[in-house]
Amino acid sequence: MAENKPQSFTTHARYDPLFHFFALPVFVFAAVAAIVHLVRHPHWHSAAMVLFSVAALVAVFKSRSFALKAQDRVIRLEEQLRLTVLLQEPLRSRIPELTEGQLIALRFASDAEVAGLTERALAERLSKKDIKKAIQVWRPDYWRV
Fold it and tell me: Which domain holds residue 96?
């Protein structure tokens, strides 16, 4: 099964085929087709179809972003709890200084290397991408889509 494949910086991104390869292209196509129709046949009905198709496309993007933001909040909470258990003082008291992006990236770090990466992330203000690139032993996340 695809979910059991090892993850790394280059392979951790995932796609939801029904969203990325069906629903999204269909809504983009509908919006483009409505705009083309409006340009070729200007009428209030054509303008209404553009408005409706663009609103539907926005709704698709917003529903996706709401789900991702909810996942980010849960990941942030999980990582704060994990770091509270794994880190020693004084690093433990600096957990609130980590950005949401840093916490989300640190979830991929193994327990053995998370302390060092956390210290580097705070000292060097590492980005999500930099943290992920620095991970030596990848801790997979098969649930995020």
Answer: 87-139
Q: What does the block give as tokens for 72?
A: 């980010």
Same domain, residue pair 122 and 92: yes
pTM to 2 decimal places: 0.77
Same domain, 63 and 91: no
Residue indicated by tokens 């496309």: 57
Residue 64 shares a structural domain with residue 101: no
Q: How buried is 71 (Cβ within 10 angstroms: 0-12 exposed, 13-18 middle, 19+ buried)? A: middle
Q: Could you state, in chain order, the average pLDDT of each consecutive group of 10 residues for the chain (145 residues)?
A: 65 81 96 97 97 97 92 93 95 95 94 95 95 92 73
Distance CA 137, CA 145 (A): 21
